[in-house]
Write a structure and sequence with these properties.
The protein has three helices and no strands. By secondary structure, the protein is an all-alpha fold.
Amino acid sequence: MIYGKMWCVVKPSVGIPIVIGAVAVASFSVHLALTLNTTWVKKFLNGSAAQVSSIQPESPQVAALSLQEVGRK
């Protein structure tokens, strides 16, 4: 363990809660920043349906022409 000697200076009963608390504060601040600075997270958390974009299918003539061009190469 890289930081094994740290526990000679800091008691684990003090250091472990500080590390866990720092991780919790960092996680909370990241999630709060995402919620405040984006629009899609608010919509997602409020249950808005996602808008799915769809690709329009090609007409049969365009598909046939592109296949003919591929066959010529």
